[in-house]
Amino acid sequence: MSTEIPSGADLSIDPLHRLAERIRAKEARVAVIGLGYVGLPLLVGLDHAGYPTLGVEADPEKVGSLQEGRSYIVDITDSEVATLDRAEFSADPDALARADVLLICVPTPLTDHVPDLSMVRRAAESVARSLTPGKLVILESTTYPGTTEEIVRPILETSGLVAGDDFALAYSPERIDPGQGAWRLENTPKVVAGLTERCRDLAVSLYAEVVREVVTTSSPREAEMAKLVENTFRQVNIALVNELAILAKELEVDIWEALQAAATKPFGYMPFWPGPGVGGHCIAIDPSYLSWRAGQQLGYRIGFIEHANEVNNRMPSYVVARISEALNDVGRPIRGTRVLAIGVSYKAGVDDQRESPSLAVMQKLKAKGAEVSYHDPYVAEVALNGDTLRSLPLDEATLAAMDCVVVLTAHPGIDYRWLVRLASLVFDARGVTSGIDAPNVVRL
Ligand SMILES: NC(=O)c1ccc[n+]([C@@H]2O[C@H](COP(=O)([O-])OP(=O)(O)OC[C@H]3O[C@@H](n4cnc5c(N)ncnc54)[C@H](O)[C@@H]3O)[C@@H](O)[C@H]2O)c1
C-alpha cells in the first residue's frame, strides 16, 4: 500500500512514521474515549493485544468501578477488568494528552428525532486540546456518511494541525453483538477507512493486532455508510416480519410456523423474527441517521426507513391491543389485571434497556390500569411511569399471583414449558412458545 511519504523525507523525524513504529512495537498508548458497550470491550481487546491503554470515561461511577476491577458490561467479566495489564482509567479529558492513538466511542443518539452529534463533537474537542503531530484519531461511533470529514476533521484542525499530514484520521465502525457470545471483537471483520491512504494504513496496523480480519474502504464515507447499511437491513427486515405478523393474524396463519418453514430454505433467505418493536442503540436509531442525512443533503427522506420506523414504532401499541384481546377472551379487562412482563431489556441476554419496546408495552399497560410487574434476570430495577419496579423472582408463587404473563424479551435460561404449565394466561410476543400447544398461550 502507498504510504504517501514524500521521497527523500527523513523518516526518523516524521512523526507519523514514528507512530507507525510505536504501533508495531506495541509502545503506542491507545486511549478509548467512552467506555460503554463498544469502548470497554475494545479497550480490553487492545490490552490483550499488548498495548498500554487509557480509558477516558465521562461517568465517574464507571471509572470508579473499573478502577476497582468491576465490569458493568454484560460481555466483559470482572476478572477481565481486574487482570487488565497496563490499563489506566480517568474521567479527566486532559489525560488524553498522554495518548498516541485516540479512539472515539461515544454515543450518537437521536434528540427530537434528529442526529445528535454533541457527544462526538465534545470528544473531538477534548482530543483537539492536546493534539500534537504524530497522533492517530479514529472515530468508532455510528454516524452518517460525511461525519469524519465534515464534523470531526475541522474540530481536530482547530489545533492548528492538518489531518493527513500532521496527524492521522480514520473511521472504523463497531460491530459488536452484545450478549450473544458467538461474535466478539476478535472474530468479527473490522471495516476501516482513513482520510488518506497513510491514515488508513496506520489504523489497519493497529486493528490487525486486535481482530483477525480488517476490511478497508476507500474513504471514511463508505465505512460510515457500511455500518448504516447493515443496521438499515436489519431494521427494514424486522419491520417486514412485524407487518407480516399483523397480516398473518388476520389471515389466521401462524406466522412463527410460516417463518420457521421459510428459514429452512438454504439459499436466498435470511430469517428475521417479529416482536414488540425494536430497541437498543442501533436498529432503533442508526437508520434514521441515514434518512435524516438524505433529507438534509438531497431534500428527500428514505421511504423504506421511514416506513420501517412507523411499523416498528407501532408494535408496542399493537402488542397491547392483542394482550387486551386475549384478556377479553378470558373475561378480564386490562384495568386491575396483574401482568408479569418477562424481560425489560431490548434484546435477549443483555441488560440494555435503551429504547426498549418492552418498557413501552409495560408503560402502555400501566397507563390502561394494569398492575404491572416484571421478571428480568439481567435487570434488577426499572423506572416505570414514575414508579420504581424491582424484578420479581420467577417462581410458582409469582406465577400464581398473576392473571397474565407477557413474554417481551426472549431471555435465555427460562423454562418456557414450565412457565406455560403454571401461568393462567401467556401472551408470547417473541415466539418462545412456538411448538408448545396449550390453550392458555396466545402468540403475536
Ligand atoms: N451498543 C451496541 O451494540 C453498539 C454496536 C455498534 C455500534 N455502536 C455505536 O457505538 C457508539 C457508542 O455506543 P455504546 O453502546 O458503547 O454507548 P454507551 O452509552 O454504552 O457508552 C458510551 C460511553 O461514552 C461516555 N461518554 C460520552 N461522552 C463522553 C466524552 N466526551 N468523554 C468520555 N466519555 C464520554 C458515556 O458516559 C458512556 O459511558 C454509538 O455511536 C453506537 O451507535 C453501539
Report on the structure:
- The chain is of the alpha/beta class and 444 residues long.
- The protein has 2 domains: 11-218, 3-Layer(aba) Sandwich (Rossmann fold), CATH 3.40.50; 235-443, Rossmann fold.
- 38% of the residues lie in helices and 14% in strands.
- It has an 8-stranded mixed β-sheet, sandwiched between helices.
- Helix 5 (118-129) packs parallel to helix 6 and helix 8 (220-250) packs across helix 10 (286-298).
- The radius of gyration is 24 Å and the shape is elongated.
- Nicotinamide-adenine-dinucleotide binds at residues 33-39, 56-59, 62, 105-108, 119, 122-123, 141-142, 174, 176, 178, 281-282.
Keywords for this structure?
444 residues; alpha/beta; Rossmann fold; 2 domains; eight-stranded mixed beta sheet; five-stranded parallel beta sheet; 14 helices; elongated; binds nicotinamide-adenine-dinucleotide
Q: Regarding quaternary structure, how should these chains be classified?
A: single chain
Main β-sheet description: 8 strands, mixed
Q: Would you count the extended β strands for me?
A: 17
**Which value, in Å, is the CA radius of gyration?**
24 Å
Strand residues, percent: 5-15%
Unreliable residue stretches: none
Domain module count: 2
CATH topology of the largest domain: Rossmann fold
**CATH homologous superfamily title of the largest domain:** NAD(P)-binding Rossmann-like Domain
What is the number of helical segments per DSSP (H or I, 4+ residues)?
14
- Classification by helices and strands: alpha/beta
Please, what is the average pLDDT?
95
Strand order of the largest sheet: 3-2-1-4-7-8-9-10
CATH structural architecture of the largest domain = 3-Layer(aba) Sandwich
Distance between the termini: 53 Å
CATH class assignment of the largest domain: Alpha Beta
State the share of residues found in helices, binned by percent.
Answer: 25-40%
**Per the principal axes of the C-alpha atoms, what is the gross shape?**
elongated
Q: What small-molecule ligands were found?
A: nicotinamide-adenine-dinucleotide
